[in-house]
Each structure stands twice: as C-alpha cells, then as structure tokens.
Amino acid sequence: MRLPVLLTASVLFLSGCNLLRTDKSHYAGTDEMLAKGDYSSAIARIDAARNEAYKPKDRVLFYLDMGMLLHWNGDYEESNEYLEMAERAIDENFTKSVSRAAASLLLNDNVLDYPGEDYEDIYLNLFKALNYLALNQEDDAFVEIRRIDNKVKLLDDKYGKMALELSDAEEAKVPFRPGKSYFQDSALGRYLGILLYRKDAQWDDVRIDLERIDQAWKLQPDIHPFPQPDFTAEQKRITKDQARLDLIAFYGQSPEKTASTFYVHTENDLIVLATTAEDYLGKQRLDDLGVIAWPDIREGYHFKFQLPSMQKIRSRVHRVEVVISDGPTAALQAIESMENAAEETFSIKKPLIYLKTLTRAVAKGLATERAKEKMVQDVDDGALSFLIRIFTDMATDQTENADLRVSRFFPAEAAVREIHLDEGVYDLRINYYDINNSLIYSDERSDVRVDPDRLNVLESAYLN
Q1: Residue 428: which residues within 8 A CB-CB, separation 6 or more?
Q2: By the 8 A CB rule, do 393 and 302 touch?
Q3: Using the 8-state DSSP alphabet, how is residue 257 labeled?
Q4: Which pLDDT does position 189 carry in this prediction?
C-alpha cells in the first residue's frame, strides 16, 4: 500500500507546484499582434486572461500589461487608469515586501505579490505623461515627469532597508547588500520636460534639462551606447507663423526574464556554486562560480535552484526616418534605451534576489535531506526507499522555480526628432529600417495638423 500512496501524494504535490511557476501561456500570439499594430486584439487576449492567468498576486502585471496596450491603441484615459492602479499597487506591494522581508525569506517569490520592476515603475510615469499630452493636459504631464525624477533619485536607497530586514532573518548566514545602479536619469523624461518648459518660455529650465541630458551621456555610457542627440532645433527660436513638430518613435520589446539553473555543493562551512551555460558551440557546460563562506553547514550536500535574469529581445529596427508630405526625409535620433535601463535597474536588487534564493534553497535542501533520512529509516523496503529519495528530490526541485514575471508591452528603444514647419496639415510616414536598410514597417499618418499655439507631439511605434 505504501507505494501507491507515495505515488499519489507526489503527483498531487507536483501538480500543486504549478502555483510556483510563472505562467506565460496567455502571451501566445501577442508578438505577432504587436508587429502588425493590432493592439485591440492583444487587449482582448490579455483582458480575457485576467482571471485565469493573472492571480491576485499578479495584479500589478495585469495593470501594466493593460495600461501599455491601451496606450498603444490610443485609449489614453483608460490607459492612465490602469497605469495609475499599477503605480499604487507597486508602492503597496514594495512596502509590504520590506515589512515582511524576513518572514518571507523562505518563500518562493512566485507566491508573493509582484512588486514590479524598477524600470516599469519609472517608465509607467513617462507613458502617463504621454497620455496626458495626447489629452492636452500639460500640467498633469508635468507631474508625471517630476515623478520620474524622484523615483530615479531614490533607486540607490530603495533596497537598503530591505537588505537590513533580510539580514536580520534567523536563516540568514551572510549579510544582504543591494547592488549599485548607474541609471541616474531618463533622457526621454528630460526631453519631455524640455518641450513643456519651452512652451511656457521657461528657457532657464530648458537649459538645465539639456545639461542633465548631457550629463546622462557622460555618466551612463552603458545605458546610452549611441551618439548623443543634437538638440539644436529644440533650442532654436522660430517665427510666430511656424510650428514645432516633435516626433517620438518607440521600437522593439522590453526584456524578458529567463531562468538559469544553479547547483550547490557543500563543504564544511563552505558552499561551492556552479551553473549551466552554453559554450560557443552551443553545448552545455558547467561553470564554476566560486566559493561562499556559509557557517554551520556540513560537507556532502547537493542542491539546485533557479535564478531570474534579464534577457534582451533583439529588435529588427536599426534606424527610423520620417517623410513629410512626400518631401525630404529626416532621421530620428536615438535618445533612450529602455532595455538597457531595465538591465541596469535590475542589477540593484539582483544580489538580494540571488542571496535570498540561495538561502532558501540551502534551508529547504537541508530540511529535505533530514526528512528523507527519517522516511528511509522508517521503511525496510529497498525499492521503496529508493522511490522516497527520488520523489522527495523531485518535489523539492519543483518548488525552486525562478520568478519570471515582467510586463511584456514596454518598448526597447526610443528615438526623437523635432522639425519646424509652417502652420498647416501634413501627411507623414514614419519608416523603420533594418540593419540592411530594408524598409520593414511604415507608419502612415494622414491629415496631421501642426499648430504654433500648442505642443505637436506625435508618437509612432513598431514593437518588433
């Protein structure tokens, strides 16, 4: 009777472990929808999955996904409603995660409320600002730009308290320390600030934001691995009969999270870490990551666990140009790599995630070993003892899955261009080219009115 009972219990346990995995099945087909600009179908797909794929712990993810898709679809008011809910929930979940850090040290992150990635929290304000600009609510757009600045300034201090709470946990064997980020400014956020300040003739504030963008290129070379934009047009005074057309093109998709498997081998008071990786021939190899001092652990244990990492999605887009009423073309200038900002901001909490996961894996692995030894001692059947070891290890491994939750609908890159035109109505084509200068997408806009008395901000997107 023992064998059927063990098999049944193991199957039930392993099926329950699906709750500890990140489900991405509801995203199937959305990449093709984005590439075609069919945002309404993507909205319908995500909305239909709100109860099945998005559990209460995933509410931030649902709000972000819906908010961004609604933005791309031009539903600006509804987009801001979802992005506002996302922002509030991110703040609530992060505050909760700090206060419960020690208590949740041994819980898989997949079962916790998703607190959002820092770049999601920062850039949702940028898209709220763009929503407000599209709705001609410039004061509200200003508020969002200031929030971007405040959030970026707090990045370095944000995880300090969480690190202290984690270090105070009973299971903590080594101190927790957050990483360091060199993401100091959003150049695109500053650019929107320039447009708003300039409209109100606040030229000194324009100068300050231009200096901040210049500083961002000097201090953040890894985030801006492309030439600094030339803002001569933005600073030029124009006649009263002329108008400024400010183009912003978004392209590519923000990074996904992928899982890496790590292996733990223990010596007395030491842990040896290794991970699987592919060599240049595509073959799997085991890479030694080094040794960590780990008090009170004995030699001879072997565990494995998973960690998340940011993985960029290569975009087909190499450059973007605009054609106005079949006239000459003008190249847009890259201004923000959101995918680089995503990687950089993730590096702040990455050491906390890694050490937390390692601590949990070791504590759980030791508890499993003790339980396994006890169960084996209680049975005389050699075959059953073997199955106990196998199924216990399988069950433990199934609970160690990386938290791969991340919003799928932020862009990877942004480019801008200001063009001075006479007041009037124009037809535009925003063309996206690949590295071979082949046209891969053309965003055609008819009857675009350019007015000297208002901001003329035009967005385009090719999320591929």
Answers
A1: 322, 323, 324, 325, 444, 445, 448, 458
A2: no
A3: E
A4: 97
Q: Are 322 and 432 in contact (CB under 8 A)?
A: no
DSSP 268: T
pLDDT, residue 332, reads 98
Strands of 242-328 (E only): list them: 242-251, 256-267, 270-278, 284-293, 302-311, 319-324
CA–CA separation, 379 and 377 (whole Å)? 6
Q: Roughly what angle, to the nearest 10 degrees, separates helices 338-377 and 160-167?
A: 10
Radius of gyration of the chain (CA): 26
Residue 29, SS3 per DSSP: coil
| Rounded CA separation 75/85 (Å) | 16
Q: State the CB neighbour count (10 A cutoff) for residue 208.
A: 15
Q: What angle do CA 276, 279, 282 make, to 5 degrees?
A: 95
Long-range contact pairs involving 15-20 (C-beta distance under 8 Å, separation at least 24): 17/395, 17/398, 17/399, 17/401, 19/110, 19/111, 20/108, 20/110, 20/111, 20/398, 20/399, 20/401
Q: Which backbone phi and psi does 332 adopt, to 5 degrees?
A: -85, 150
Take residue 359 and report the two structure tokens written for it: 């601590």
pLDDT tens per residue, range 226-269: 999 999 998 988 888 899 999 999 999 999 999 888 888 889 98
Predicted confidence at residue 110, as pLDDT, reads: 87
The Cα 279–Cα 260 span in angstroms is 15
> Which residues are CB-contacts of 328 (< 8 A; sequence separation ≥ 6)?
none
Its pTM stands at 0.88
Are 385 and 2 a contacting pair, CB within 8 Å?
A: no
Residue identified by tokens 């975009």 is: 315
**pLDDT per position as a tens digit, 160-186:** 888 998 998 888 888 999 998 888 899
Mean pLDDT by groups of 10 residues along the chain of 464 residues: 42 47 86 93 95 93 98 98 98 90 83 94 98 97 96 87 88 88 92 95 94 92 92 89 95 94 88 66 52 87 87 95 90 97 94 90 76 57 48 52 93 97 95 97 96 94 95
How far, in Å, CA of 155 to CA of 146, rounded? 15
Nearest to 330 by CA among 247, 273, 263: 247
For 286, counting Cβ atoms within 10 Å of its Cβ (0-12 exposed, 13-18 middle, 19+ buried), the class is exposed
As a whole number of angstroms, the distance between CA 87 and CA 90 comes to 5
Instruction: Look at residue 284 and give its three-state secondary structure.
Output: strand
**pLDDT score for 283:** 47
